Amino acid sequence: MTLSQTIVRTLEERIAAHRKDVKRENVGTVVEVGDGIARLSGLSKIGASEMIDFGKGVLGSALNLAEGEVGAIILGDDSKIEAGDTVKATGQILSVPVGEALIGRVVSPLGEAKDGGSAIPRTTLYPVEKIAPRVIERKSVTVPLQTGIMAIDSMIPIGRGQRELIIGDRQTGKTAVVVDTILNQKQTQTTDRPVICIYVAIGQKESKVAKIVDVLRAGGAMDYTIVVSAGASEPAALSYIAPFAGTAMGEYFLDQGKDVLCIYDDLSKHAWAYRQVSLLLRRPPGREAYPGDVFYLHSRLLERACCLDEKHGGGTITSLPIIETQAGDVSAYIPTNVISITDGQIYLESDLFYKGIRPAVNVGLSVSRVGSAAQRKSMKKVAGKLRLDLAQYRELAIFAQFGSDLDQATKKQLDRGARLTELLKQEQYRPMPVGEQVVLLYAGVNGLFDEVPVDQLKGVQHRLLGDMRSKHYDLLETLAGEITPEAEEQLKRLLTSFHGKKS
Amino acid sequence: MKPTPGQIAQALVELCRELPPDEVGNACDGSLSLLETHGLSHALRTFPRLVRHAALARENAVPVTMTSPTGSLGAAGQTLVSTLERTLARIVEWEETADAGLIGGVVLRSADDRFDASLRSALDQLALSLTQPLPLRP
Question: Are the C-beta atoms of A138 and A309 separated by less than 8 Å?
Fold first, then answer.
């Protein structure tokens, strides 16, 4: 039978099987609508978070269930809805389309295409709200997620399945860190554990999202990335569900045993959107006018990041939530909430940024609670000394400001620290493979750059890496995993001869 | 214990049965004041509907709206109402409305339940069935 005959037969079967059943629906009436929310009468059998069909292609979700009245958020254009309109309960909770077809696309939190491409197929739907995996289904985090940023991979290592918060004031490079992390996952695509990335833009400018998509496309990252965008001009309800929708898209790949990276940029705007919706729905305001369950808003989202055991597929979801602080205040309400939920934080400081230290990571205040458990052996070996040297440098730098005479050991420590700080500076959109990081850090902590003037260090670094890439690529591959005695000998010889050539 | 808007509506209906007609307005004003006193101002919008439902429940009546393309079902509508009264063993307070978009058939609505037996709905269901993904292999 040919394909056309099969199609015709299928259609005939469907027409024959069609029965004109009487549909029973639970309906209500719009009492009041505006500002992205609607108050409805009726809908006596509706459940919490059940989808509501307002007609005219507009959907909503029931959030407030009171006697005789239902408060709902409108997930679309509320200008099409009028008081007196009839609405119906769909009997389903809010779900979004998931699948491989979303990779490379820019979509709305409802799974609608925003990049001008073809419509997203709705073959498989996942619920936006889902209970996180239980304790018994999880295992500890051991596989590293390389960001490609030396300062992070060495001293604040992130593992697959971890939640690591990125926190800082505006314009400190938070989005730059996550974009570099996404770009760095390109090298995982040829391994047996590729990482699929989902970037959720919450309340961001469309121009910023467009720029990020351009950067990802130029870096070949859109081949494994989904961008979910709820723009600043869109209803707050869409910003509210955006991170949950992005996580649902990630859970599809998690269920297949794959590794997923979910980035929420940023949860501060997410909390604002939830506050707006809650105040409009007349929920009682708490501290800073946020509703009482704003902690639960983020905790249930971030708990869905996990590292599942082999029995449940072995997949992981790594979360990188972003929080924007005001004037460096990490003790504010929302930042402290999210800090207490996540497994560590990367603190970006404006002072460091303006001094030219970029990424502006404050390694003293940043921490990863997973730590070296999710770090490669080679990196673990060099990172310990690096952290110690930098900590000593920070302490001694205070004395150096007084301009008093310093002994040789102190001067040496200060010189070492200045060079290590310069070494950790990295250009934007230039993630570095692990092997190269290990080479540079090994040279730095063992004093091979101590004779190099600080302002010339970057040039030396580039020449060294160029040399390694062109002539000793196999050594870089080895060092990406472990510093074997043979590899260490070879590295020492190469660095010494490079040092000799340079001087 | 704070009364609910539904309880106030039921109380109003019971009270109005005992009051002379010229006192009914005062009773309604009193019930609205009661809502505000108990912090139930948000229920003012839906209160008339609650009163209507309470009144119909008191009379053991079921409100039904029948919507057809023309708005006049004629004898078929009467038959439908009789069948409902027999099945539910209650009085049916019915009204007819028109919606040409239904094409044919009828839609019944009672309180929060809607029973859609219209031709439009049947065609929508058929369209949904026919537009499901087709097998691509013979």
Answer: yes
